Amino acid sequence: MWRIVFFTLSCDLVLATAYNNFRKSMDSIGKRQYQVQHGSCSYTFLLPEMDNCRSSSSPYVSNAVQRDAPLDYDDSVQRLQALENIMENNTQWLMKVLNKTTRLELQLLEHSLSTNKLEKQILDQTSEINKLQDKNSFLEKKVLDMEDKHTVQLLSIKEEKDQLQVLVSKQHSIIEELEKQLVTATVNNSVLQKQQNDLMETVHNLLTMMSTNSAKNSFPAKEEQIIFRDCAEVFKAGHTTSGIYTLTFPNSTEEIKAYCDLETGGGGWTIIQRREDGSVDFQRTWKEYKVGFGNPSGEYWLGNEFVAQLTNQQRYMLKIHLKDWEGNEAYSLYEHFYLSSEELNYRIHLKGLTGTAGKISSISQPGNDFSTKDADNDKCICKCSQMLTGGWWFDACGPSNLNGMYYPQRQNTNKFNGIKWYYWKGSGYSLKATTMMIRPASF
Question: Against a cut of 0.70, is the pTM above it?
């Protein structure tokens, strides 16, 4: 007779259900335990066994039948067969559970490995973040240091700026004081020059009177009636000695004294400007430049009004003769020259430059209006006549000014307001002597 032995399985909670089902089918059968270790799981089996494997004729059989129940041999075999089938099914089920458990363990292991890898990546990223944070901290510190340095530099620059402003303010005050002294000296110089000019004009008048009386005794009375419009007419009348002659305004009886150069380049030149020793102040008003000033025998300005009227009667040429302090001479000759009327500010017009004082005209082209200290007609907001002194055809102060301040030798360089002709000696060289003369182009 067979006796069924119950078995148990323990592997966490996965096999609890199988255990309970198998126990219900085996709860009335004797038990014998077998333990199996599989991985991290431990399995205990209660398997069916034969009890001493006695034959059916043994007295034990009848006792077992009597003890269990009145069964015949076939029923016992069928019952045993059913139990074996149940056992086989449960065994197959247990194998499936084992396989599933193994897969779960592998998945758990892979998950654990993946988790470890992720943790390692997180640690690496954390390390990188820490490095970046350290680098960021270093850069922040560096930026702060640079900001501190820049702050110190800005403070230093501000202090220097304040010091420069104080220095400029002091220099401005000094310049203002020097300007006042210069104005005072200019006024005194103008007074002295005026007295000198009056004295020279008195002497000249006496000489003219003596010359007139001598002429009356030497020439017929009809020559007293000759009128000269310019020095070219004086030369054509037979005079060959350079000197002061009386000229008459065109279409008028108004007279003016002028110096005639009757020897240079064939003669016939009317001198409209001359500088030679600084004896005459050329920082004059518009009216003075209009009518003329100075002494024709020395430094003088003939007068814009006379020159404008004269040069609009016929075509005139202009020659500008220059001397420096080293004994050199040069000239600029313009083939066509004339001045506009006072209504157009005595605007200068020049064409056809030749000569040795520069290939480019130092009088700005096209023509500019005339400006004086009290009549600003230049193209600069700085008032060139006041800044550079003298009346002239300034552009934006321009490359020339033959009526500037007269500077003696060894004081004539680096003078922006001196007597300059840029395309011969540059902007800072003040010339020794200048002469501006005109003559008819047809002479």
Answer: no
